[in-house]
Amino acid sequence: MSGLSRIALALVIIGGLNWGLIGFFRFDLVAALFGGQDAFLSRVVYGLVGISALLCLRLLFKPSEEIDTVNDRHSRYSNPNLGTEFGEEPDFRKERDAKSKKANRDKKNVK
Fold it and tell me: pTM here?
């Protein structure tokens, strides 16, 4: 996430908290801090929060990099060749027998 997106998200969070205070307690924190709703600084903050909300709209429709990375990792380590009822199953007995024969030969060579 870019620096501009982080700032916009922070301002949207501030605006959301302010709206929560207005809704639950009828207290406008921005107006209280900057001299009322009609004060110049209050209007600047309200405008910045509105612009930030418009910038954050693109975050809503942007695919998450974290989700993409998890999917990439999953597909990298998953086994795409899943056996079916028509597929051949590996015969591990051959491998086991070969290892036991080699072990027997090694024992004979050591003596």
Answer: 0.55
pLDDT tens column, 10-61: 999 999 999 999 999 999 999 999 999 999 999 999 999 999 999 999 888 8
Q: Which residue has the higher pLDDT, 66 or 94?
A: 94
Work out how many domains the chain is built from and give that number. 1
Distances (CA, A) of 42 to 1, 21, 49: 28, 16, 11
| CB-CB contact of 30 with 45 (8 Å) | yes
Structural domain contains residue 14: yes
In-domain check, residue 19: yes
* Domain of 27, in residue numbers: 3-63
